[in-house]
Amino acid sequence: MLWKDYGICPHIGERGERMRSRIIATIGPASDHVDTLAEMMQAGMNIARLNYSHGDFEGKEQTIRNIRQAEANTGLHIGLLADLPGPKLRLGRFEGEVELLRGELVDLHCGFEEGMPPQSTTILGEMVKTLPVEWGGLSKDLQKGDPVLLSDGLIRLEVLSAPDFENEIVRCRVEDGGILTKRKGINVPRTLVKLPAVGPHDLACLDHALSQNVDFVAVSYVRSADDLLPARERIEAAGVHTWIVAKIEHPAALEDLTAIVELADVVMVARGDLGVEIPLEEVPAAQERIVSACLERGTPVVVATQMLESMVNHARPTRAEVTDVATAIRQHVSAVMLSGETANGQHPVKAVETMARIAETVEQSTKGLPDPPALAAYVSTRVIAGAAVDIARETKAKHLIVGTEHGNAARLMAAHRPRIPIYAMTNRIRAARRTTILPGVESLIVEEQTRARSTVAEAVKQLHEQKKIRPNDTIVAISGSPLAISGRTSTIRLLYVNEKGELSDLE
């Protein structure tokens, strides 16, 4: 039975507030329909992910139109995340599938992007299977004895011979076999592949994503903070405030983690490639380290990959998957992400419902646990945000309201992980969509008044009409002065809602 059969939604709490944890869902053939998208939004999806590694620009535009139509139909603000391909090594495009068996010989034809290379034979007449590899430079980076992992590490090859120049053939032997289809990922754990983090194709994808007014752009395979600069420069040149998500999926990023967290707007623990590039048993510790670094800085952090993987084919997840999601929520992550579960799976809506139900249950069980570490207060807005959270805690206020022009003030307040709802009031739909990544934050579109208090009063009026606040509720609001939304955040107000649902000063 679905949530709608009960007349409730699992991510709605007892007072009608949405759950604090955010859910990102990848959109693909299984979910790219207006009605399905609307159901996923109502079930708890906050951000729709568009994977630019697959499909064309025209298809992306149609998907975005479908998402915005579903957004209009539901009345919910939904963020758009464009995930750039990045320096990801991939097989080329070919028809059908190839089965590799242990002990077989395989030739990797580097720089062969389209179609299947011709088969060749060894001196002994043994047939050698062939696979196309998009990037020609791989042949120059590999050496004899190097492991080559395909399809997220499920298939393992060992290099027998490799030339020292580009666009040539690398001969391998299959150590662990399996079935391959086009454009599956390639990982070479012992080799730092010299692909640029943001190459020409990534820039073309970025330009297209910005033209579609996406809210977040994910830079894949980040190895250092410098890898984020080309995207940052492109976004600034476009004059927009799109947030950058740094995907941590290479061990080199762990060496420059502090700088990456400092420069990025959001960080993603991309465990698929990370779990191939480092030993599997080290992934949990790496996840904890990345999450802790983000909490200390106040940077939103996402955990992704295989969170409910079994739901690609089944209506229920495994116990281990439920525990994995629960662990991430207990670590105070900002968001958890679904990939194949919603892109290609048989149960996209149910996958979101299940994720939301797990998150809500865990959140209820963690109310007595310690909050995340305090943030370093080194800018005025952060100081004001932290003070507002402290005042709310001491006065037992029911709600926090923050005026925000681009979403930054809301991000700084959410970083403190208060136990009460945060309402981000803004006059910009783009800012409202950007806050969908922030835990415990719900946005309000409010026309800015000539005085900050009047703007806050309008926000309170909306919330009262929506039955999200009640008479006699205490509110802590932060805003600019004299305007609430525009300009630097500088003012804290302690207010309450009178019996008429109107804003009054706390006596």
Low-confidence stretches: 1-17
Strand arrangement within the widest β-sheet reads 1-2-3-14-15-16-17-18
Measured on Cα atoms, how large is the radius of gyration? 24 Å
Shape: elongated
Q: What can be said about the biggest beta sheet?
A: 8 strands, parallel, barrel
Q: What is the number of E strands? A: 24
- Tally of structural domains: 3
Please give the count of helices: 17
CATH architecture grouping of the largest domain:
Alpha-Beta Barrel
CATH top-level class of the largest domain:
Alpha Beta
The helix fraction, in percent, is 25-40%
Give the full name of the CATH homologous superfamily of the largest domain.
Phosphoenolpyruvate-binding domains
The helix/strand class is: alpha/beta
Q: Would you tell me the overall average pLDDT?
A: 90
End-to-end gap: 48 Å
Q: How much strand content do the residues show?
A: 15-25%
* CATH fold assignment of the largest domain: TIM Barrel
List the helices and strands and how they pair.
Elements: H1 3-6, E1 22-26, H2 34-43, E2 47-51, H3 57-74, E3 79-83, E4 89-90, E5 98-100, E6 105-110, E7 120-121, E8 127-133, H4 138-141, E9 147-150, E10 155-161, E11 169-176, E12 178-180, E13 185-187, H5 200-211, E14 216-222, H6 229-238, E15 243-248, H7 251-255, H8 257-263, E16 266-270, H9 271-277, H10 283-297, E17 301-304, H11 319-330, E18 335-338, H12 340-343, H13 348-365, H14 380-395, E19 399-403, H15 408-414, E20 422-426, H16 429-434, E21 441-445, H17 452-465, E22 474-479, E23 491-497, E24 503-505
Parallel strand pairs: 1-2, 1-18, 2-3, 3-14, 6-8, 14-15, 15-16, 16-17, 17-18, 19-20, 19-22, 20-21
Antiparallel strand pairs: 4-13, 5-12, 6-11, 7-8, 9-10, 9-13, 10-11, 22-23, 23-24
Helix pairs in contact: 2-3, 2-13, 5-6, 8-10, 11-13, 14-15
